[in-house]
Amino acid sequence: MITFYDFNELDEVGKAGAVFTEGLFVDDREEGGLKVQLYRLNNFYVEVFYDAAANKIARYQAFKSAGNLANYLLR
Q: Which long-range contacts (C-beta less than 8 Å, at least 24 apart) are formed by 17-21?
């Protein structure tokens, strides 16, 4: 079971592995031309920012605060 702190220490390959093997897909949205997918891992969330034009993941953003879920609830 990966923790929030362990996740943040992983490299991009490790983060991808954790999200796509342990994560539960929750929702998606768009932001600044990127598709953002939200996953839940244990007691935290991870946003995966995907750049469709470049066909690559731009970044991962992990958070614990429920306030960050507003981007998904208030649309």
A: 18/46, 19/46, 19/48, 19/60
Residues ≥6 apart with Cβ < 8 Å to 43: 4, 64
Locate 52 and state its tokens.
Answer: 């469709």
Question: To 10 degrees, the CA torsion angle through 40, 38, 64, 7?
Answer: 70
How much is the pTM? 0.91
Q: pLDDT for 5-51, tens place per residue?
A: 999 999 999 999 999 999 999 999 999 999 999 999 999 999 999 99
Q: Which domains does the chain have, with CATH numbers?
A: 4-73 (3.30.67)
Return the structure tokens found at 11.
Answer: 């490299």
pLDDT at 1: 85
Q: Per residue in 7-16, is it b (16+ CB within 10 Å) or e — as a string?
A: beebeeeebe
